[in-house]
Amino acid sequence: MNAAARFIKMVTFWELIKGMVVTNKYMFKPKVTELYPDVRPVLPYRTKGRLHVEIETCISCRMCEKACPEGCIKVFPPSKEVFKTDKRPAQFYLNQEHCLHCGLCVDPCPTGSIHHSHEYEMVVYNFDDLLFDKETLPYDLDQKQYRWNVLGNVPVKR
Amino acid sequence: MNFQTLMDVIGWPLIKIVILLVPVFTVVAYLVWFERRVLAFFQSRLGPNRVGPLGLLQPVADGLKLLLKEDIVPTNARPFLFKIAPIFVMTPAIAGFAVISWALPWVTPAGNTHGFVVADVDLGILLILALSSLGIFGIILGGWASGSKYPLMGSLRSASQMLAYEIPLTLSILTVILLAGSFRLSDIVAAQQNLGWYFLFPGLIAFGVYLVSAVAESNRTPFDLPEGESEIIGFHTEYSGMRFAFYFVGEYANVVLISVVAASLFMGGYDIPFVKDAALYAAHPNLASVLGVLSFAVKGALFAYFFIWIRATWPRYRYDQLLRVGWVVLLPIALGNLMLVALLKLWLLR
To answer: Which of A125, B47, B129, B274 is 20 to 30 Å from B8 at the Cα level?
Structure first.
């Protein structure tokens, strides 16, 4: 750059004005701030929220219990006589307090009964509220925000 | 002394002061909100938006919080000076608004005229310069009376800063005074209306010098050396509660003041752009006055936006750099420009 051009740039404050143009561009760009309680975020399709179990299709195979690295799933199959006709578990415990949302229980499930939902508001006042059993585990599926991850039982490419 | 004289001497000025102070304090309070919002927008944030719609009640909440805070005077401080220093900052900044002419005079149905100005003194702009120089005393006193070394360093930086900007500021305003032929702000605006264009164009260099010096005068980024919000500790470190609020109000009142002074010196003040003001005033005087105030407000707001804009963009100067800019760059430019404009006035604008 020759001296004349540098002098003109100095006199017209070229660099300073260039900076001001850049900042003014950001003034009118969309903002990155999340207005969380007012505006709900649009979650990605495969969001790993709280686990949801469809007790009706569960066959008590205990694959999820074996896969869980934290041991937070406990499945109790029904008695042998009942199992011949009805394979639904007698009791199903989920300790959400220890759940990592790793998704390792979802992959081996042969019926796709266990999968992640889109619920992410899991703050409670005491730990007991994080222990779910057969009755409290399923969501109220009518509520839109509790829709589950429909891709849960699709095999993931390795 | 009859009632009429009493009204003219005491009554009307007092009423005008009250009418002026309410909008001035409102504008100063909402400038804080405006700055926080706009600065956040520049940084891809949203700024205060929780208190009231769009965060419009934020200044009220801030003011209440500062009012209710404990008023602490440090053990090492000099109590009298410590208490009086914030008033030294706020009062001159507010007092400067007295001489600013806001619009053409209001005409009552009876035919009387009332100027949109508290005191249309013939050395108005000089009074503003004098008052804004007084404001620096509050900063220096506050830093010294705090009895702590960091505020003292802040006020020392402020003192050195004052050396840098005062003379270029005065010289740039002198250019406008030369063009207008008067120190009175209403005369300066009238001169721009008669000339047909604003002093922005014959005084472009003076305008630049004024902007730089005015930013330095109101202690704002890139010349916020006395305060230095995040990096260097400022002169009001020891202040809390209402005394801190006084400093805050003083700073923002200063911003509003330099904005409206810049608007009336260089952008034609209450002159309505693209409209023959004299003809409009002859036909509908009160409409012209109200439109004039609005036009003035828009011009002032543009300057306020500009000051926030440069705050969002430019980094801070060191104070030796500021002194160098003031004495080596701005002073020769302002002096040369003054001579150039004098010659222009002599030959072209007779």
So the answer is: B129
